[in-house]
Amino acid sequence: MTDSPPKTFIRTDGRQTWEPRPINIHPGFIENADGSVLVETGKTRVICTASVEEGVPPFLQRKDQPPKHGWLTAEYGMLPGSTGRRKKRDSGGKIDGRTQEIQRLIGRSLRSVVGLKALGNHTFWIDCDVIQADGGTRCASITGGWVALKLAINKLLKTGAVLSDPLISPVAAISCGIYAGQAVLDLDYPEDSEAGVDGNFIMLANGQMIETQMSAEGATYSRAQMNQLLDLAEAGVASLVEAQLKAVG
């Protein structure tokens, strides 16, 4: 793990370097969705819903033949009041580059733990709407998106629309970074905005990695520091998975 920080080191909310923000996952937050949650990580709040549609996208359709497998895709957005200044709504089908990057990340992260053949002739839509942003919104979206997906699949298993559970493993995501010279877990916005190194880690329940995004934001980092961040992320994801499994019963 990380070296002991100096006694004068204080995070913005008083946490230790290795402490994640408190997480609360509220299942069934939206009654009309097949699966839904409100996920809260500190002051960040994201509504995640899973909706199921018959059929698959055109690129999976084959003439006079059933599709080889189902599909899962994701959309992400920030509501106007989610940030300090009003966030302009996406309109006319146009989304900014950051939004596109994040929703692709959510989609491929969740697809990596889904047996698409078991979905049959269905498309799963995972919609993640940020209602309050205080850092880590993409990570919260992946973590909450998996719970919403699991709840939707449980519903389909009960009705027989899906014959076997396609989920291979829980998947969760958490941020880590170098803040004030220390490797810290789960950055909030003040830390994220000043971090010298910022990273997002998407992992399975067993610690296997799906995707790692690390970048220097004003300071380079060493191999030893990267290992520190990976250790922090692994422990952080384990705590998130525990919360996920509790939320789905």
Can you tag this structure with a few keywords?
4 helices; 4-stranded antiparallel sheet; globular; 249 residues; single chain; 5-stranded mixed sheet
Strand content: 25-35%
Beta strands, count: 9
**Which regions have little confidence, pLDDT < 50, spanning 5+ residues?**
none
Shape: globular
**Average pLDDT over all residues:** 91
- N-to-C series of helices and strands: EEEEHEHEEHEEH
Helix content: 25-40%
The largest pleated sheet is described as: 5 strands, mixed
Structural class label: alpha+beta
Sequence-ordered SSE layout with sheet pairings:
Blueprint: E1 23-27, E2 35-41, E3 44-54, E4 71-78, H1 97-111, E5 122-132, H2 137-159, E6 171-179, E7 182-185, H3 189-194, E8 197-204, E9 209-216, H4 223-247
Parallel strand pairs: 4-5
Antiparallel strand pairs: 1-2, 2-3, 3-5, 6-7, 6-8, 8-9
Written description of the protein model:
With 249 residues, the chain is α+β, with helices and mostly antiparallel strands. The chain contains four helices and nine strands, in the order ββββαβαββαββα. It has helices at 97-111, 137-159, 189-194, 223-247; strands at 23-27, 35-41, 44-54, 71-78, 122-132, 171-179, 182-185, 197-204, 209-216. The strands form two sheets. Strands 1-2-3-5-4 form a five-stranded mixed beta sheet. A four-stranded antiparallel beta sheet has the order 7-6-8-9, with helices on both faces. Strand 8 and strand 9 form a beta hairpin. Helix 2 (137-159) runs parallel beside helix 4 (223-247). The longest helix has 25 residues, at 223-247. The protein is globular, with a radius of gyration of 19 Å. 43% of the residues are buried. The model has no long low-confidence stretch (mean pLDDT 91).
